[in-house]
Amino acid sequence: DLNNDGKVTFLERKFIIADNNPADGALSAQEWIKADLPSVFGPFDGHKSQISNVVDELHYTYYTVLHECALQGVRAYQRLLVSYPLAAWCNITVYAQLINPWISFNNSQTDLMVATWNEITSQLLWSSTVVQKPSVEYSSLKPPITSGSGYGTMQGALFASWKGREQLNSDYTCSDSFAPNLDGFVVVVRSNIDTISLASAVIFMVFSSAFVNFVCFLFLLLIGVGHLLWLVERTENPEQFNPSYARGVLDGAWFCIVTMTTVGYGDKVPVTGLGKAITAVWMLFGIIVFGVFAGQISSNVNVLSAEASISDITTIAGFTIGILQSTDFVELDQIYQFTPSYCADLQSCFDKLNTKSVSALLLPQVDVLSYFVDNRLAQSNCGNPFRITGSPVLQDKYFSARFCSYGKEIFAATYLANGINSILANLRDNGFTDSLVQAVTSAAEDTSSAGSCSPPNPFNLSIIIPAASILIVYYTIIYYINHIRRKIQKQTLDSLFSKTSNKTSNQIALHYGKKWKELARQKAEIRRRGGEIPPPTVPNAYSQDDRLLHFLRRAKILTNGQTRDLKRLQDEMKYFTSSSRRSCKLLVFAILVLVCAITAVVYSIVIVSKTRKVYVQVSPS
Predict the structure, then answer these.
(1) What is the dihedral of CA 397, 403, 407, 412, to 10 degrees?
(2) Which listed residue, of 167, 412, 440, 484, carries a Cα 20 to 30 Å from 192's Cα?
(3) What backbone torsions phi and psi does residue 386 show, to the nearest 5 degrees?
(4) DSSP state of 39
(5) CB 407 within 8 A of CB 175
(6) What's the whole-model pTM score?
(7) How far is CA 517 from CA 78, 320, 511, 522, 529, in A?
(8) Tens of pLDDT along 386-444?
(9) What residue numbers bound the domain in which 128 lies?
(10) CATH no. for residue 423?
(11) Is the peptide bond before 456 cis (omega within 30 degrees of 0)?
């Protein structure tokens, strides 16, 4: 106490400890640094302002605040500086954002961050106040307060979410992770594995850029070969390859299509030697083309199968993977060799995965768990539609659940981080954090009765139902047409035979059938006896002219009757055609009304589900 004021100040301690030459009453540069106890407080030389490169008054004040808080903590709690003591009046204001299940403020025994922080401060005998804020960013952290009623108060924050490049800023000093097992990045996939179908593989291929380019190239080649065959065959084979340009080129193109697809109708055949040679080459080309086509479908099935079998970080190479825009500096796509699809936030990433725009997601683990809990996906009716697969990666480089404070040119941040790390190591050793980590993971685990839900239907109803509906409609139309045709035929026969009899067509057919059968039996009996069958006779006709006249009269009667029947048949067919046209129009109108109704219902369901989702997210419960 050099000035006898009753307390040892920071400068007095320096003189007592480091002044090797008390006679000069001054401290050299070496003595000054030695008095800083560099193994505990850090060298005072490290607190120079980066702007002026000198220890200015402001940074000197920051240093003295830490010194005073630490030494009074030593006296008050009878602890060495290696135990990182702080005086009770040196309060630590800790800001925290509500992030379930990491920080919820409801029950500190199950909130990993708050419970761990309370345990750390109780063991270090630190005085702290946890303040809930709607949003906590690194830029909101400030240096210790050096004046006023808040003198000695230090600031920090509990972070439990990915903050992007800012969390690697050297201006902030952070502790070790509160939950190392939950750090890093994880692969997220859809829980339900889709059934790989040939239809989906074909659709996937048809809409691919490579297939569209190939089809366009094949079309141009087909037109070119069609021209060539027409030029070669038009003079020697004009019956099958029309000499006119328009029809002739179409004939050549048609022949190329039929030959390339190996259908071979045979309606057109080259006759010239050159035409046959061109056709032979074209046949071989067609075999190659359809071999490539079948191979491409098989390749697409393999790709879709591989996408369904993504199990960890080693199986995502070559796929389109969704990642947060804020993780671009990590260069995950370069490390794991996938095509990135950037998302602005977690919701957009999971929307892409749900709509199958991406094969999987690679996201910070803490954010994934928070998303599962906030959206209550673990308690959904048929289980969480998404799941984490494989082990986390880059846990030793990128972690989010930790305490941070402003540490640019301020050693107090390092002092706090070192004290927290010393207790965190003990908490991990004695299993304190294990139970809290288990509470976090269990909150995100699937607790619904997902096992009772039926598995996805292997039949693609979106294809089967339209196909069956079209089949039923066509069968109904064809059956109706045949029914009308049979009805018209029956009416025609009845009208023809009604001229000579009151019997129905069936009765007349039965009568003449018996009569013809009896006549055939008589003729067979005559032949058996060796007799001669007499020629048919015409009643009341004794000469050839009479027979001809009789035949012409009967033909005229029959022709007049058939003409009337055919006219009536035409009228009925016209009526049937108009009725069919009206029925088709009515059917199309009914289908359009049904489609509009279904679209309205689906749109209403989507709007209601989105509204409910927003309500669930903003509801306090």
Answers:
(1) -130
(2) 440
(3) -125, 155
(4) I
(5) no
(6) 0.56
(7) 133, 81, 10, 9, 19
(8) 888 888 888 877 777 889 888 876 778 888 888 999 898 888 888 787 777 777 777 67
(9) 36-181+400-448
(10) 3.40.190.10
(11) no
